[in-house]
Amino acid sequence: MELGAVNYVAIAVLALMGLYVLSLIYNNFRAAGVTDRGIQAEIAYLRERVDRIKAAREFDKQKNELSWNGVRKFRVERKNPENKDICSFYLRPHDERPLPPFEPGQYLTFKLNLPSGKKVTTRCYSLSDSPKSEYYRVSIKRNPPPKDPAKADVGKSSSNYFHDHVNEGDILDVQAPNGDFFLDMHRQTPVVLIGGGIGITPVLSMLNAIVESGSKRETWFFLGVRNSAEHVFREHLERLDRENENVHVRIVYSKPDDNDEQGRDYHLEGRVGADLFREVLPSNNYDYYFCGPPPMMESLFHGLREWDVPESRIHFEAFGPATVKSKKTADTEDGAAAPVSGSGFKLKFTRSEKELVWDGSADTILEFAEANDIDMDSGCRAGACGTCITAVLAGEVNYATEPSADVDKGSCLTCISVPKTDMELDA
Description:
Protein name: nitric oxide dioxygenase
Order of helices and strands: HEEEEEHEEHEHEEHEHEHEEHEEEEE
CATH topology of the largest domain: Rossmann fold
Strand content: 15-25%
Distance between the termini: 119 Å
Keywords: 2Fe-2S, FAD, Flavoprotein, Heme, Iron, Iron-sulfur, Membrane, Metal-binding, NAD, NADP, Oxidoreductase, Transmembrane, Transmembrane helix
Largest sheet: 6 strands, antiparallel
Strand order of the largest sheet: 4-3-6-1-2-5
Number of domains: 4
CATH class of the largest domain: Alpha Beta
EC number: 1.14.12.17
Radius of gyration: 29 Å
Number of helices: 8
CATH superfamily of the largest domain: Nucleotide-binding domain of ferredoxin-NADP reductase (FNR) module
GO molecular function, one term: flavin adenine dinucleotide binding
Helix content: 25-40%
Enzyme class: oxidoreductase
Shape: elongated
C-alpha cells in the first residue's frame, strides 16, 4: 500500500511529537536529578554544621568538667629524645582522671623548683601533640651555653632542668592548657602551618589534630631547620604526608650537610618565607600559623604582608620581646614605628628597695629588673600567661603589644612593657 503525502506529513508530525515528548521526559528527569543533588548537598551541608556544633558543645562540656584551677600533679610517664637537643616528655595526671581537651597550639605552664632558684620558677611550653584524654606531651629544646662563659648558669635554665633533672616517674606541678595561639578546628578553610626549629611544637599539634579529626581541609606544613641534625619527627611527618592526600609536608634545610640529599632528606634548600611560598603554594589564599626564632617570625610576617596576605590571616606564637616588637611595628596603621620608651625615667622597686634609672638598654621592664638582680615572676614572656603581672604604685607604661592576659587596673605585665613615665612598682 502506498502512502500519500498527507500520510507522510502525519508520520513526520507524529515523529516530531514523539521527540518532543521524549525531550520533555528527559528534561524532567534531568531537572529532578539536579534538584535532588541540590537537596542532597544542602542536607550534607546542614549535617556538617550540626556535627560541628555538636563537637564544639562536647568540647566545651569536657573542658568545663575536666579542667582545673591552680596546679595539678603530673607524672612523667616517658622521656623520649627526639635528637641530641630536643626531648619529648609524656605527662600523665597523677590522679588518673581524664584530661580536658585543649585547642591545638596552646601551651602548658609549669611550676618548677630549679636547683639554684630561690623560689618557684614559672615556665610555659607548647603542647606538641593533638589532644588526648590520657596524656599531654611537650617537646623541649636544651638551651645552648652562652657565648660568655661567665654568664653560664644552667641552674637557671628551665629547659636544661628538664633535660638534666626531670626523669621518668618524677612528679611535676602543671597548670591547665592555655594560650590564644591555636587552630580553630571547627573551620575547614585551607591553612599553612610553619615551624622553625623547636617552633615546630605548636604547629605539629595543629597538624596532628587535623589528621586525627579526619578533616580534609587543605593543609601545608613547612619545617625550617639547618640540616638533618635538627630534623625532628621525621618518620612521623613522612607518614602523615604519605597517608593523607590533603596534607603536604615540605622540609626546608638552610645549610644541608655534605651527607644530606635533596629529595631524600629534605624537599627545598633555603629559608622558609614568602618568596618560597610564592613558588610552592597555588595562591596566597590561606590562613598562616607559625612559630620559630624571632628573625624568622619577623621575616615571615612582613613577607606575608608584602604578598597581600591580610593581617587577619596571619597568626603566630609570640614568645620573646623581639617577636613582639616586630608585630607592634607592623600593626601601626601608617606603618610608622610604634611608640617606644624614652630614657632617664626613674624606676623604684619598692619591695627590693632599689631605685634605678631606665637607660633604654633593656627591651622590657622585666629584663631591666633581671639585669639588676631584682626578683620578679615571669612565664611566657609574651604577655599571655599573666605570671609577671605587677602592681603599679605610680606612673604609666607603654605596651609593645596588646596583652593577651587580663590586666587589672593599676597593674602591668612587665614582660611586654616599658616605662612611659617615672614609676614605682611593687616588686
